[in-house]
Design goal:
- About 35% of the residues lie in helices and about 20% in strands.
- The chain is an alpha/beta fold.
- The protein folds into two domains: about 5-180 and about 350-365, 3-Layer(aba) Sandwich (Rossmann fold); about 180-345 and about 375-400, Dihydrodipicolinate Reductase, domain 2 (2-Layer Sandwich).
- A nine-stranded mixed beta sheet has the order 14-13-12-11-7-10-9-8-15. It has a six-stranded parallel beta sheet with strand order 3-2-1-4-5-6, sandwiched between helices.
- Helix 3 links the parallel strand 2 (about 65-70) and strand 3 (about 100-105).
- Helix 2 packs across helix 12 (about 350-360), helix 6 packs antiparallel against helix 13 (about 370-390) and helix 11 packs across helix 13 (about 370-390).
- The longest helix has 20 residues, at about 370-390.
- It is globular, with a radius of gyration of 21 Å.
Length: about 425
């Protein structure tokens, strides 16, 4: 698929948001869920660590489910993932992936979707999520989509359109924004919505952590293979780390605000320790101030540097007190202080798959499309502000024409230009 065709399907899918309600009748699969003892056939697209974990969770989620197809850009990653899954005794008997259903290359997603599966798990680098999601929904498949779901605004618009189409087709779309599936987070945020803090005045989202994996370039790799192997460090593939990872707690703040999103953002960021070419073109720190229409501000900070204090959390300041909403602690300090201390098992990574497969069995689809797309845009909006040094409005972010895709998808093709953004010089598109 070349960049022109990607732009065309993004344009077409964005228009579908408006036209879906009046569109002419199209083919809708009659078997959109499998009841009773029907086997649910699962396909995995993206066989890295997160994809392998998602596949294991999917196989644990339902007694009659099988993994029957796998796809990845690289053969070695696919085979490592397959071997890892077969080594897990509790699910090994549910792994039924024959050699002719192992697909590699840029078009592997089409082969997985076309292999007769009912459910597709998507865990590739985020750049590919919009095109993979559209293909799966067009084919009538239920989807688990890892976060984030795009790296640019055309991708976000495509995802919004695909999720509207999924509603029409009664397909489930479950997001990898897994904190929404935590019992503890659900109870804490419900208390906030019920008025435990009174009116919300400000929010803060932190993601301070150390450096992560780095794949050094090997002899014989083309530029495209180097980018794909080292995808985290290239904005066109990951969206930058404030999109790829910090999206979790930005989404928590959006959830606290009852799925309202800010009207503007301004911020700063840069590369202080990631200065070598091996780190692609992403930053190592971002700091963004988002403002809501009612004056509430969200202070967003993220950093990936060694030797520094780590803190991954969100905080809320209300008229009656404060709250910490994090995996470490769920606490409301207002009136009668409250701390979440339930003994209930809270494996939200597993729970999101449990609910996905339960929804398919019941014929009552889940659709997380709107918040997974808009929270992704929230993170992209912050990147736009830090890269350009400009104030960015929500409308500017949503309607941006910046398309980060390459001219073509092939191992000998040139990846997109990857300059390091310089605030004040990099243009807002």
């Amino acid at each position: 698929m070349n960049a022109k065709s990607r732009r065309q399907f993004l344009k077409t899918s964005s228009a579908a948001v408006v036209t879906a309600s009046v569109a002419a009748a199209e083919f809708i699969p009659t078997r959109v869920h499998a009841a009773g003892s029907d086997v649910l056939r699962v396909g995995l697209i993206g066989c890295g660590g997160r994809g392998t974990g998602a596949a294991a969770q999917a196989l644990h989620a339902d007694p009659n489910v099988k993994l029957v197809a796998m796809g990845d850009a690289f053969t070695d990653r696919l085979q490592t993932s397959l071997a890892t899954l077969k080594e897990q005794k509790e699910i090994a008997h549910k792994v039924d992936v024959l050699p002719d259903r192992c697909f590699t290359g840029f078009n592997a997603y089409q082969d997985v979707i076309g292999s007769g599966v009912d459910v597709v798990l998507m865990a590739t680098p985020p750049h590919y999520r919009p095109m993979h999601l559209k293909a799966a929904v067009d084919a009538g498949k239920h989807v688990f989509a890892e976060k984030p779901v795009a790296v640019d605004a055309p991708g976000v618009r495509s995802v919004l359109a695909s999720c509207e189409e999924a509603k029409r087709k009664k397909l489930s779309i479950v997001s990898g924004l897994c904190l929404r599936y935590s019992y503890g987070f659900q109870e804490t945020i419900q208390r906030i919505h019920d008025g435990a803090l009174g009116e919300i005045r400000a929010l803060q989202a932190n993601d301070f952590r150390g450096p992560i994996w780095l794949k050094k370039r090997q002899p014989g790799w083309t530029d495209m293979e180097w980018h794909m192997r080292n995808w985290y460090y290239f904005t066109w593939l990951s969206g930058d780390f404030n999109v790829e990872q910090h999206v979790h707690y930005l989404d928590v703040c959006a959830w606290i605000m009852d799925n309202e999103y800010p009207v503007s953002a301004i911020g700063m960021g840069g590369r202080q320790v990631r200065t070598g070419p091996e780190y692609g073109n992403i930053y190592d720190h971002h700091s963004v101030v988002y403002q809501y229409a009612n004056g509430v501000k969200l202070f967003s900070h993220c950093r990936q540097q060694a030797g520094c204090r780590n803190d991954i959390s969100s905080h809320v300041l209300g008229e009656k007190g404060t709250a910490e909403v994090s995996e470490r602690r769920l606490r409301i300090s207002a009136g009668q202080p409250w701390t979440y201390d339930s003994k209930k098992k809270d494996d939200f990574y597993q729970k999101e798959h449990d609910e996905l497969f339960a929804s398919i069995r019941s014929g009552k689809p889940i659709n997380n499309g709107e918040y997974m797309a808009k929270s992704t845009l929230l993170a992209i909006m912050g990147r736009m502000a830090t890269y350009t040094g400009q104030l960015v409005t929500w409308e500017q972010a949503l309607n941006s024409q910046e398309d980060l895709s390459p001219k073509s998808y092939a191992w000998d093709a040139e990846p997109p230009p990857s300059p390091i953004a310089i605030p004040g010089l990099t243009k807002l598109v």
